Amino acid sequence: MPDLGLEVLFKGKNMARILGGLGVALQISLVSVCISIPLGILLGALMTWKNPVTKAILRLYLEIIRIMPQMVLLFLVYFGTTRAFGWDLSGEASAIIVFTLWGTAEMSDLVRGALISIPVHQYESSAALGLTKAQTYLYIIIPQTIRRLIPLSINLITRMIKTTSLILMIGVVEVLKVAQQIIEANRMASPNAAFGVYLTVLVLYFIACWPISMLAKYLEKRWR
Amino acid sequence: MAESLLTIEHLTKRFGDALILDDLSLTVRQGEVVVVVGPSGCGKSTLLRCINALEPIQGGAIRLEGEAVEHKGKNLPELRQKIGMVFQSYELFPHLTVLDNILLAPMKVQKRGKEDVKREALEWLERVGLKEKAESYPRQLSGGQKQRVAIVRALCMHPEILLFDEVTAALDPEMVREVLDVMLDLAHQGRTMIIVTHEMQFARAVADRVIFIDDGKILEEATPDEFFEAPKTERAKKFLNMFEFHREAKQDDRK
Amino acid sequence: MGNPEKEGSVTDWAFIREYLPMYQEAAILTVRIGFLGIAISIVVGLLCSAAQYFKVPVLRAIVAVYVEFSRNTPLLVQLFFIYYGLPKIGIPTDAEMCGVIGLAFLGGSYMAEAFRSGLEAIEPIQMESSLSLGMTGAQAMRYVILPQAVSISVPAFMANVIFLLKETSVFSAISLMDLMFTAKDLIGLYYKTTESLFLLVVFYLLILLPISILGSLLERRLRYAGFGA
Q1: CATH of the domain at C26
Q2: What is the C-alpha to C-alpha distance for residues A186 and B106, in angstroms, rounded to an integer?
């Protein structure tokens, strides 16, 4: 049995530090998701409007955000805006801005998709039953849209969590950074720490994301 | 009397614990048109699927010209070429044109030459009134048109026997006739056919023999006139009454 | 903060010209690793989706575990583990190979899901109607099931290609001299933030825009599989 470098994890507060680092990543994703979802719903609803100008602007926003790797967006905000506007933006703040911009774009597209997937005859049959427009939305359209949306939004959370791993690259001390520090500090005592520690981080991310993915899958099946 | 083409002996079919076909025996002679009727869920569609070995069976044997038709049997592709099947939902291949739908199996399975099959396919298409649709894709056709193409597709394999599984059940009423006419035409040509249908008038017109199945058993086997005029069993009477009731109800509406 | 007066707010075109070749080289690296990784992803994805579609015992369970694990962990962490972790148990890796393997490990599961949902979108009765025409299982797959499944998979497939190319942006973390690495390097060395970022965006657009446009074109062309109508 080769030395897997797992003993480092049980030294001192190392495990607690790693979990703390994961906490930072999770917090940033949670904050971004919480802002993205309401904003995304708003923009998604706007996207179904007939106004061509709103449509074009929102489409442009969506396409720009989508085509750029999130890493590039992080660089643009963290290095670029600091430079252009002369403000001092922390890595955490940049991350939240970028993930919110990205999450909002993704969410708005999901909302738009869910809204246009409701067949026209649902509106028509509601009208035929004498429901007002407001009642139609309240009792017929929104409940169906929400059913389609919830699994997709939950999936967005896991995507967000996975994406937060990138903030290491703009100097935020999160789980990978903590892992690096621990490996570095123990390089003499446990030369193989890189294996055990990075494996642990990998497993921790899996533990954070997998149950959420499963929930999304379950709801999708149940509400199909 | 012509010799038997298809024999089914003591066929038993279960789905889990549910007994679908219960010790069912049936012989179909060369050139005979057998119409199978019965309430939904009686096992008549399953019977056709078993004859084409699309379902494993739990007991008994099915033989075509003496050769055993077995699910996962070795010579199944060869046997299935002799058994044409038309499905309720048409099952044309959506990525191929009408003509390619028809040509695919004769060319790839029977290795026949393209020109030969194409000539035959176009003749058939003309006969069923669809020659101009040869280059169309299935989604451009109506249900009735798709079903006629599906029949031509089966015919171009030169099958010994044709199985029709409720082929008009998914069609709009005005399209039912065009499909039934094609089948009637085939019957007059002396083709061997097993037809599962709910179209009672058609059944009476086309059948040499009517089989009434309920609960996985053949309850009656008679000429169409016998069956429709004087059904012997209570269940068959009840079944036929359901159709009568609909007609009376409609007449009441008109008053 | 900073001292923007020094260089002024004018874009330094000389700088851009000077470092253009460096970006070019970085872009080539990104594309090379990206496409190699994607090519292997496709193979992995095909094998995995086949194992699941044909319900191959044992293999199917292994694939399920792999797909869940790969889809629920970030590429960056996968790369760290492969690049820094694996050599510790005696599996030697070099950075470029790691990039390819990492991308293929991630992409394989995404491709598998795309292909599988394409296959599962074809009703089983299409297989039955092929069999009833006397086709063998292999003939039915080749002439009937696969052509339909492939066209249904195209949108998801193209989305995956774009997603994976974007994911290559984390390669700088394992010290591959890709576009991100180059940009960060130049920002650190010369404070030419605007110019470095400008080149970064332009090069990513050069890589991603054509694929994205190709994707929407393909999607439009292949949208025929609508039954009924």
Answers
A1: 1.10.3720.10
A2: 71
Helix (H, G, I), strand (E, B) or coil at A95: helix
The terminus-to-terminus CA distance of chain B in angstroms comes to: 49
pLDDT, tens digit (0-9, with 9 covering 90-100), for C131-187: 999 999 999 999 999 999 988 898 899 999 999 999 999 998 888 888 999 998 888
CA closest to B82 among chain C residues:
C134
Q: Please check whether the domain covering A6-222 is classified as CATH 1.10.3720.10.
A: yes
ipTM: 0.89
On whether the CB atoms of residues B73 and C131 are closer than 8 A, the answer is: no
- Of C129, C134, C225, nearest to B77 by CB-CB distance is C134
The overall average pLDDT reported for chain C is 88
Amino acid residing at B132: E
CB contact under 8 A, A169 and C1: no
Instruction: Give the residue carrying structure tokens 């003499």.
Output: A188
Subunit contact A195:C85, Cβ cutoff 8 A = yes
Q: Is residue C150 part of a domain?
A: yes
| C10 has a pLDDT exceeding 80 | no
Give the Cα separation of B170 and A215 in Å (integer): 37
Cα–Cα distance list, C34 to C110, C131, C181, C202, C216 (Å): 15, 40, 15, 17, 20
CB pair distance less than 8 Å for C170 and A2: no
Coil, strand or helix at B11: strand
Cβ pair A157, A212 in contact under 8 A: yes
